[in-house]
Design a protein that fits this description.
Blueprint lengths: L4 H12 L6 H17 L1 H12 L3 H27 L2 E2 L12 E2 L6 E5 L7 H12 L3 E5 L5 H9 L10 E3 L4 H7 L6 E4 L3 H11 L5 E3 L8 E2 L13
Parallel strand pairs: 3-4, 3-6, 4-5, 6-7
Antiparallel strand pairs: 1-2, 7-8
Helix pairs in contact: 2-4, 3-4, 3-6, 4-5
Protein name: Aldehyde dehydrogenase 3 family member B1
GO molecular function, one term: 3-chloroallyl aldehyde dehydrogenase activity
Pfam family, one: Aldedh
Length: 231
């Protein structure tokens, strides 16, 4: 029996129903994420200390504050980001209305690493929610205390018809990747990145496989991952 089928069906149905498209809904999810960070700061610090022996200062600066800053930035700019972008017209389109409308991808999968288990989980989550997507979040099973907080506490702050956390190791992640996602955001080693790319190539999807300080898109076909940063 597929452990993910019902969850993914629920999220796709919510997306196709248009639940995530209104700016008000997106803003509500972002505010919920901000409350999660504020109200559970000590819990997150404790989990990061247990998993990675991070001090409270390091946890705040490198994990919590960065994530909170992304939430603030997205809320401040959300409506501007959602506006249609007017583009120049040529002779053949003078009587037309020419613009670029930004559309959400649909169902987004975020696979997070162990070494910055909050920052590299929630920062891409902010972008996915602001863009109006439904999200499946796969935290690292290695950072087990942070994983537990994300699985048990974070969903209380977000609309669970459009958001889910899934748990497991390599075997479960492999099963998850057998499903089609419209966008995959992965941070990790080249070895695992190749596994993600191979699985995603079976379905039409976009992927981000970023090094630590910048992000580059790769097509859904086999590509070199030689510049991907080891984790």
């Amino acid at each position: 029996m597929d452990p993910f089928e019902d969850t993914l069906r629920r999220l796709r149905e919510a997306f196709h129903a248009g639940c995530t498209r209104p700016a008000e809904f997106r803003a509500a999810q972002l505010r919920g994420l901000g409350r999660f960070l504020q109200e559970n700061k000590q819990l997150l610090h404790d989990a990061l200390a247990q998993d990675l022996h991070k001090s409270a200062f390091e946890s705040e600066v490198s994990e919590v504050a960065i994530s909170q800053g992304e939430v603030t930035l997205a809320l401040r700019n959300l409506r501007a980001w959602m506006k249609d972008e007017r583009v120049p017209k040529n002779l053949a389109t003078q009587l037309d209305s020419a613009f670029i409308r930004k559309e959400p991808f649909g169902l987004v999968l975020i696979i997070a690493p162990w070494n910055y288990p909050l920052n590299l989980t929630l920062v891409p989550l902010v972008g996915a929610l602001a863009a109006g997507n439904c999200v499946v979040l796969k935290p690292s099973e290695i950072s087990k205390n942070v994983e537990k907080v994300l699985a048990e506490v974070l969903p209380r702050y977000l609309d669970q018809s459009c958001f889910a956390v899934v748990l497991g190791g390599p075997q479960e992640t492999g099963q998850l990747l057998e499903h089609r996602f419209d966008y995959i955001f992965f941070t990790g080693s080249p070895r695992v990145g190749k596994i993600v790319m191979t699985a995603a190539a079976k379905h039409p999807s976009k992927q981000h496989l970023p090094p630590p300080s910048w992000i580059f898109p790769l097509p859904a076909s086999a590509s070199s991952l030689s510049c991907s940063q080891p984790r």
